[in-house]
Write a structure and sequence with these properties.
- This is PAS domain-containing protein.
- The protein has helices at 25-31, 35-38, 53-64, 110-130, 151-167, 185-200, 212-220, 234-246, and strands at 7-11, 20-23, 69-76, 82-94, 99-108, 134-137, 140-149, 172-183, 204-208, 229-231.
- It is of the alpha/beta class.
- It has two domains: 7-109, Beta-Lactamase, CATH 3.30.450; 127-245, Transcription Regulator spoIIAA (2-Layer Sandwich).
- β3 and β4 (82-94) form a beta hairpin.
- α5 packs parallel to α6 (185-200).
- 21% of the residues are buried.
């Protein structure tokens, strides 16, 4: 344990406040605290204002039940800097002493977590690009579908449309299919079911760019376009919307 690259501590739950009775060099390097500053203390000194209280409660519960626990927790070094700690705590029974100790293993995963956050932000941007909802005129927004649509992208479209209608003053959503390359039967049905979702959210859906291939495919799937408002282009749909609002 002395030569381990990860941080290792041992605590004694039979002593008051479950203090640290052993610390390795890896823990010293990870946290910036010297052994003299660590030994005899509960390891809560690693916690701070941004440490999740729920995670701390789960750790305390596991220790009270003498159960192993693995988690990720935001901790603080001696200099106040934050680091993500991949923490594993295991109860170890020493038969000769007839008692339990706890061994805690800490690994700095800050770089990994930051990479995950960047990846999540990137994926979010990709998702928004795959279902861009843009304002046209007051309370009228357009969702152009470009490229192929599969089940995953259909889910993104539904989620984004729901969020936009909830968070913005969307009264009319124009779904433009003029840039659509291909979609399977399931996605085709799902895309047209968007009309029911939009209605439930108190808005209306208008379809534009419905080409002959889409019309033929919808007929083969028993999807009736007659129940939907359709126009050749977004421009025509907007003009019709403006004319209706002025009449």
């Amino acid at each position: 344990m002395d030569s381990a690259r990860v941080g290792v501590i041992i605590t004694d739950p039979d002593q008051e406040d479950n203090p640290i009775i052993y610390v390795n060099e890896g823990f010293v390097q990870l946290t910036g605290y010297s052994p003299d500053e660590i030994l005899g203390k509960n390891c809560r000194f690693l916690q701070g204002t941004q440490t999740d209280h729920g995670t701390v409660a789960n750790i305390r519960h596991a220790i009270s039940q003498q159960k192993a626990v693995s988690t990720e927790i935001l901790n603080y070094r001696k200099d106040g800097s934050l680091f993500w700690n991949e923490l594993h705590i295991d109860p170890i029974y020493v038969e000769e002493e007839n008692k339990y100790y706890f061994i805690g293993v800490q690994k700095d995963i800050t770089k990994q977590k930051h990479a995950e956050e960047r990846a999540n932000a990137y994926n979010k941007e990709i998702n928004l690009m795959s279902a861009p909802i843009v304002p046209i005129i007051d309370n009228v927004f357009a969702l152009p579908i470009i490229g192929n649509v599969d089940r995953d992208r259909l889910k993104i479209i539904f989620n984004h449309a729901t969020e936009m209608i909830h968070s913005s003053d969307v009264e009319t959503l124009i779904l433009d299919l003029s840039g659509l390359n291909n979609l399977d039967d399931e996605s085709m049905k799902g895309l047209f079911n968007l009309n029911d979702l939009v209605k439930l959210l108190g808005a209306e859906l208008i379809l534009t760019g419905v080409n002959p291939d889409i019309a033929v495919k919808s007929k083969s799937l028993d999807i009736s376009l007659s129940n939907l408002q359709t126009y050749s282009t977004i421009k025509q749909a907007v003009k019709a919307k403006q004319k209706k609002s002025h009449s």
